[in-house]
């Protein structure tokens, strides 16, 4: 009898089903206006997600508030479909007072966790849409001489909820020496403030040497210095994407000019790991906190009050504390009403399940 059984084809079956189902990935880009976020996203995925966007004038930016814009596009490459959702945050850090400008972003990320938890707890769990943010490109101003206070505060608020990848935008405005010094300073300040950025998985001993060297190279390149461009330029008879300057041409896909190739390689190579870290670490932590302190419980109220007190220490006065106390009482009443509504829904679901069992 042959020693071949056939279960070696199981990976092929998983591959066919996965390709047929397609992939989903949500990428968030955060940073000041004018750092080339939109251009970089279009350059990474060879698409135009912001064709109809209108650039705001300076006088409009003074009064602008942060907005959350989502753009989805389905990309197909060699029969593999990827539904890419890009979450942009125009207006971030544009106002004179940026102390609360990032709260809508934190609320959006947690709302996606809440939506996924609700769908996961429902009756039909087969077709759950995963809109959780799997990766966040945080753009750092190249002329800021390191991390600004708004950068530190934002990343510390969000590093427990999303995989943060620091990116230095428009790095062609710096010399090589300035860029090296800025990278070292950014990494030093990240470690000093105990900010958790995306940590590459450790390579197994049986991994290929080329893959180990690639992972090591990608780790050392953080934060990635990038230049985005959708303009095709002729360089010595070769068509390249880059930027034309009086002193020369910056090729975005040239490793000697910027880290664009490394950033794209990191995103594609570790896209599945980014999703797994989101599921196994960030979402599970949120789920544990959410289930241990459901809405309306005393623990959640004390947590909200402590969060309010933290905000007060960041610059709010006694008048804001009084207003927050009144708002907390209203929130407590709303949470109590929501808890009663949740109980009624659970009773209805229990009745429906009982009816279904009787019919069977």
The biggest sheet amounts to: 6 strands, mixed
* Number of separate helices: 11
CATH class of the largest domain: Alpha Beta
**Could you say which structural class the secondary elements and strand pairing correspond to?**
alpha/beta
How many E-type strands? 9
CATH architecture of the largest domain: 3-Layer(aba) Sandwich
Beta-strand portion reads: 15-25%
Q: Give the H and E element order.
A: HEHHEEHEHEHHEEEEHHHH
- Could you give me the name of the CATH homologous superfamily of the largest domain? P-loop containing nucleotide triphosphate hydrolases
Rg (CA only): 24 Å
The CATH topology assignment of the largest domain is Rossmann fold
What number is the mean pLDDT?
77
- Uncertain segments are 301-323
Describe the structure concisely for a colleague.
By secondary structure, the chain is an alpha/beta fold. The chain has helices spanning 10-21, 37-45, 58-62, 103-120, 149-158, 176-192, 209-220, 260-269, 271-292, 298-313, 318-359; strands spanning 23-30, 69-77, 80-88, 135-140, 164-168, 224-225, 232-235, 238-245, 248-251.
